[in-house]
Amino acid sequence: MENSNKNWAARFFTLWTGQALSLLGSQLVQFAIIWHLTKTTNSATTLAIASMMGLLPQVLLSPFIGTWVDRGKRRLILMLADGTVAFATLILAILFALGSVEVWHIYLVLLVRAVAGGFHQSAFGASVVLLVPKDQLARVQGFNQALYGGMSIISAPLGAFLLAVLPMQGILGIDITTALIAIGIVFFTHIPQPERGESHDFTFWQDFMAGYRYIITWRGLVIILTLAMVINFFYSAIEPLTPLLITNHFKGDATQLGLWLSLFAVGTFVGGIILGVWGGFKRKMVTALVGLILMGMLTVGIGIVPANLFLAGLVLNTAIGLCLPIINGSIGATLQSSITPDMQGRVFAFIQSAAMLVSPIALIVAGPFADRFGIQPWFLIAGTCCALMGVVGFFFPDVMQIESKPREKILNVSAEPS
């Protein structure tokens, strides 16, 4: 196999470096745009709509994007996705330079960037399994998680510094430059394509349905997805509730909130490095489930910590940040090694879309719940549920054996819809 080549690390990490630079540019732009909207509109509705521009494509389009990725050339998709982001950002930079930018221009660019980012994320994720040996996937996942944590640490302060010394179009220009560097690296990097076999002549909708059937007929994956959706329901509301936890419970201010969020990102970075070096237990699902139990217990701790022990809450929250990449990286590596390569784009896209579907419902429920019962009970319930889901996973043989029983394709899909 291609990924058995001894030079896989040089090839993969060269590609990874380009993607890291592109991610940094994107996060700087995201920070700058949100700050610009905050200063110029002072409108929560505007910020909410801007956030929805990034969220909706992930929820609604991910399964379709994943199908396109599995049908297309992943190397070309990566270049086109980065190119689309660069072009859309260039248009916005020109509008800022001319002083002609309107809020709806920003909404449109954010939407285009989110769609292109969906293609990029799916294509890169689906390519990893063909570039990296299976026994190294957990370590690579760890370094990926560390990358996101590290970017979260530096992007906000760096973005604030750049806003003080550069106009908006200058910051947008940085993102354009990093995107072009990423395109150049991909252009000179060989990314193998998976064999499609009998599905080569499938239509788009047959490929789409094949991905859907692949998931729903795989008991182990359905159980994992169900556990993830239950956990996501509670944890997706934790971030929006965190400012209220700091102000209402700990009686803190913006300084305490900034410290809370920054140390969480530090924990995420360290956790990713730990997984990257360690690789987890031999059975990666054991690593993930133990991590869920530990993260749940830490969250329960935040739910019961007294108001005068902010430092204890800070330590608990940082430890949660450390657990998160170990959990996500281990599950990601498990699925990457278990899913047939030419189904990776679709399957991960379906999983992402399904997992995020519960987020809007959680936000609708969490707000009134916290207003009525307080902030800490939500953390208490979330942590208990997370730990319970981790324990429950050990009792399903289909979950525990998912690594030893890779899933083959299902080719008897229904015909294209009329």
What's the number of domains? 2
Bulk shape: globular
Order of helices and strands: HHHHHHHHHHHHHHH
Kindly report the average pLDDT value.
85
Q: CATH H-level name of the largest domain... which superfamily?
A: MFS general substrate transporter like domains
Say what the CATH topology of the largest domain is.
Answer: Growth Hormone, Chain: A
Structural write-up:
- There is one protein chain.
- This protein has 418 residues and is an all-alpha fold.
- It has 2 domains: 2-194, MFS general substrate transporter like domains (Growth Hormone, Chain: A), CATH 1.20.1250.20; 206-400, Growth Hormone, Chain: A.
- Helices cover 80% and strands 0% of the residues.
- It is built from 15 helices and no strands.
- It is globular and about 60 Å long.
- The chain starts with 7 loop residues before the first helix and ends in an 18-residue tail after the last helix.
- The model is unreliable at 410-418 (pLDDT under 50).
